[in-house]
């Protein structure tokens, strides 16, 4: 259930994406573009003006009513991973969201997607919520603002992440700065607490880490490009690459896909968000090329 579409904005244009699922393309005045499926309100493509695709979308991704799309930016809500009783990473990425408004400004274009607690979500998670994802593209930037409001009468808490799959020319060339010295929970060692050595993070094998209280801005270099990831409102950051063996075991990750992707995920994990009735929370991810 979503709010009615705003009559005074531009009309959204849907085309049939993979498996016929509806998707919409947002194009900014400078030509930058993003593509978003209603399924999961999942951004699956971002091409900055004059640039090339910056998100990874697996060629073998599954697109179906009960599946999560492997790539782009899955919205993980209301539970990160297996940290609770729900299916891994919660239900938001497997549900159809509504598109409630689209606006084109002089510099950028944005669209607002909504997911409201319904019979299906209540069966899984007994809380009345309204979640919004505002996707803005323009000016070499993709911004995702994720908000959750408690529209019920009981307090609730949740964890969440924007599980962003970034495209890599070659994973061996990817260098992530500003994680040095941070404490992380290592998913490859029962979430043991470890300290990231000083210096940049590079990939030479499987990485699955929850960095606690990561800085608001991370910097990612590849041979010919730099990307800044800003994450106001999200204290934690997950870094993931399944590498060869684990990657090959994921049926919806294309062969050798691990060479061309890595996830940087602004997240709220260690200290869940707690919302009293009427309260809301917002976290923002900005990818700046
Ligand atoms: O965010 C990292 C992670 O939790 C990894 O542990 C890995 O399993 C990944 O997400 C993908 O999860 P998925 O349920 O999409 O296969």
Question: Can you tag this structure with a few keywords?
Answer:
mainly beta; about 5% helix; nine-stranded antiparallel β-sheet; 21 strands; binds 6-O-phosphono-beta-D-tagatofuranose; about 290 residues; eight-stranded antiparallel β-sheet
Distinct ligands, ions and cofactors found in the model: 6-O-phosphono-beta-D-tagatofuranose
Distance between the termini: 35 Å
The low-pLDDT segments are none
User: Largest beta sheet: what is the strand line-up?
Assistant: 6-7-8-9-21-18-17-12-15
Rg on CA atoms, Å: 18 Å
Biggest sheet, in brief?
9 strands, antiparallel
Q: DSSP strand (E) fraction?
A: 35-45%
- Helical coverage, percent range: under 10%
Structural class: mainly beta
Order of helices and strands: EEEEEEEHEEEEEEEEEEEEHEE
Would you mind describing this structure in some detail?
With 289 residues, the chain is mainly β. Helix content is 4%, strand content 44%. It contains two helices and 21 strands. The strands form three sheets. Strands 6-7-8-9-21-18-17-12-15 form a nine-stranded antiparallel sheet, with no helix packed on it. Strands 5, 10, 11, 13, 14, 16, 19 and 20 form an eight-stranded antiparallel sheet that branches. It starts with 13 loop residues before the first strand and ends with a strand. The chain binds 6-O-phosphono-beta-D-tagatofuranose. 6-O-phosphono-beta-D-tagatofuranose is lined by residues 68, 81, 88-89, 163, 187, 208, 238, 240, 263, 265. 6-O-phosphono-beta-D-tagatofuranose binds at residues 68, 81, 88-89, 163, 187, 208, 238, 240, 263, 265.
